[in-house]
Amino acid sequence: MRIEANFRTSGVASRSGVGQAQGGGEFRLGEAAASARAGSAPLVSGPASIGALLALQAVGDATEGRRRQAIKRGRTLLDTLEEMRADFLAGRANPAMLDRLATILSEERETAEPQLDALLDDIELRVRVELAKHGR
């Protein structure tokens, strides 16, 4: 970019000229700058936009919370099944684990994700099979 001036300075100012204003040029905005300024977007009000962002985050947290609960439930069921398997291999039977599995299954789950629902359905089916094997 090349900068052009309407006036030329005559060399370097002497020591006595320091601090004194030199006349000559003046700064003006061209028509392009004025029209660009007039076409700029209005400012967004701060509190309204912050409130909207917080509302969006709250909605995301609600759905994410249900998803986390469903995942936690599935992990708990799988962990309990694993403990039951270890007890079975060791020759022990633990009726408390069966009760815990039945209690978890009786709780209602809330998810809206088809893939997660399908996975939880498979886990719950396996738990129901184990409960049926033990007469519960």
UniProtKB/TrEMBL annotation:
Gene Ontology biological-process annotations: bacterial-type flagellum organization
Compositional bias ranges of the Polar residues kind: 7-19
Residue segments, region Disordered: 1-24
Protein name listed in UniProt: Flagellar assembly regulator FliX
Originating organism: Devosia geojensis
